[in-house]
Amino acid sequence: TVTGSVYGFGRNSTITGPNNAGDGAKIPSDYSDFQTGFRVGLPLIKNKLFFFTNEEITRRNEPIFYGAGDPGSLVDVATANKISNYLVTNYGFNPGEIGNYNIYSRSNKFFNRLDWNISDKHQLSIRNNYVTSEASNLERDVANFRFGSMDFKQVNNQNSTVAELKSRFKNGNVTNNLILGYSDIQDYREPSSPSIAGNNANSNSFPQTEISYNGGTIFLGNDREATVFNMKQKTFEITDNVTFFKGKHTFLVGTHNEIYSINYGFVNSWNGRIAYRNLDEFLAGKVNRVRGSYSFGDNTRDNLFNNPYAKFNVGLYSLYAQDEIQISDKFKLSPGIRFDVTSTDSPALSSKTASTPVDTNAGTTYTVGTQLNKIDNKFFGQVLVSPRLGFNYDVNGDKSLVIRGGTGIFTGKIPFAWLGYAFYNDGVGYGSFDINNRAAATNKGDVLKDGAKNFAFNNGQANLTQVDVISNDFKMPQVFRNSLAVDYATKNGYKFTVEGLYTKTINDLKFQQVNLKDSVKYFSYDTQKQMPIYLSGGATGQRLNTGFSNAYQLTNTSQGYRYSVTLQASKTYIFGLNFNMAYTYGESYDLTNGIRNSMESNWQLNQSLTPNDPKLSYSNFDTRHRIIGSIGQIIKWNKNQNTTITGVISAQSGAPFTWGFVNSTIANTPQAAGLAYVFKDEAEATKYFVDKKNASGTVTETAAQQATNFINFVNGDEYL
Fold first, then answer.
1. pLDDT > 90: percent of the chain
2. pTM of this structure
3. CB 74: neighbour CB atoms within 10 A?
4. Residue 703 is inside which H or E element, if any?
5. How far apart are CA 340 and CA 315, in angstroms?
6. Gyration radius from the chain CA atoms
């Protein structure tokens, strides 16, 4: 029998609600989101060989809110035009669209599967999934305004094939499930700005430029993460599970292995990353911070794009066993154990690393995982043991009351991008510069004309490099997880569940800036010495090793935990109505959220008073309050036809946030997010404010006025 169907889903602005993320206005008519496809299944050989295919395309066009002058936007039209005109007049660069802007996403998906009944004991299935997709990327919100030049196209192509062989032996008392998989992924980005240098080594790609403005940031130029971005990953997977039955026991023994070959073709800020403290300094050409990376060899974009420097392999290997014991008709116990081993190549290591001096003040505010001069770049290789135990107790034997739970250790993995940085920022193949606090200095040249690299070289940072290292004893993440739940079903069909989860960190992540001298002072208001202010370090600066612009380290921590409690109720009525409602309360604590793709960003954007020794705080993944529910009605017209109407609700409390400084910190570190001290009253605030003056030296706002405004703002905010 041949079966098939054609399907399509879609919506446009007509059937889409208002912009609840912005000003509540109607969604612009440019919005559309469509998905269409077909599927066909048929036997090629009756009862022997079957084929199934599903082909699908998606198309989405999405207007971007918060254009210049829009309600809630960071900038008005006059400011945006002022910036555009300045750049066109002085540098011949058009930063792009300031108003309405559309981004898009497109994908084509092809899924094909063969199922072969080899015999009554063996079944083989082979499936292939091929996906091509591309999307433009420009984001704006109340705190960030991006000119159109920041847009880029991301292309992702994936091709994966999986073969699965299921076998039965000894009259079904022994089964085997063998899975072999292979995938090939390429992910690359193409900037939309016309100023990309290409093969012209004498041309400069206009750098990503950041201007602090009204508590937010204005971005323009080429996105620093898109100018050189070309990732390729090949993965081979083998899994084999053997299950056999003996008496009250169901044994499972298996292995799961993943082998990755990765070409990490990403150069962070190849075009430069330029930062200004405010709009006036931007228009006056007073740059404050200049960062970037470059190859010591052929530094043309085409060469770096087509010949990734960071190439490495990763292996994830595991063995596991479990015994499901039916101790009685009511009670089942499931002990198990798993062994995990990770392997990878050893990155090259700059000879400068071994010559890094020991900080005489080490331990004042932080302790490194491994001192730079002791890094050997040999990590992983440990056997991580994960014992587990689960149970299920059917109290009355009729599933009306079930108590279930479990405890155990679970091992995860890290994003391989962090490994990629260790291979790319090895201090051997690439140079790096990070020249900071330049707004009040006398600079040589114009960074937007000379280019970031030339400017850095001309102002004292020639031939430096950056290293991203991993501590010698680094382990993959591990947690100790526990759960306990009670399911209760009434005679009239209501079902209730109470479930608690508690997870304690064994090995989690911590990022540190390990080239920072631990020489500090404290401001007088900081009586408990919570926020160290790092000293400039004299003639050699803050850096332990003056050959490094920066040095970051990924290490482990055992700090962190999370818990949650869930209440759930459900019921299906005989007349077709059904509902399911659940409420969860939970809290989560960690040292870092680990959501950034680089060690540097994870450190710079960690909102901590002591970023090299962060304290336990609410996680970005803190759940707190969450409600999920559905209600549906099935209407039966006859034996073969019915209609289902379903409504869904999902609500969650907002994400944690802190008050601080954007693109700035008073701690005198390279941090990009500094926490704010909240003065207790106006008298204390007045001591630390200074009169604000214009360019001619006239006081525009006294310290007392600023203190009054600050305290009024604090008193007007419930959180503060």
1. 74
2. 0.89
3. 22
4. helix 703-715
5. 10
6. 30
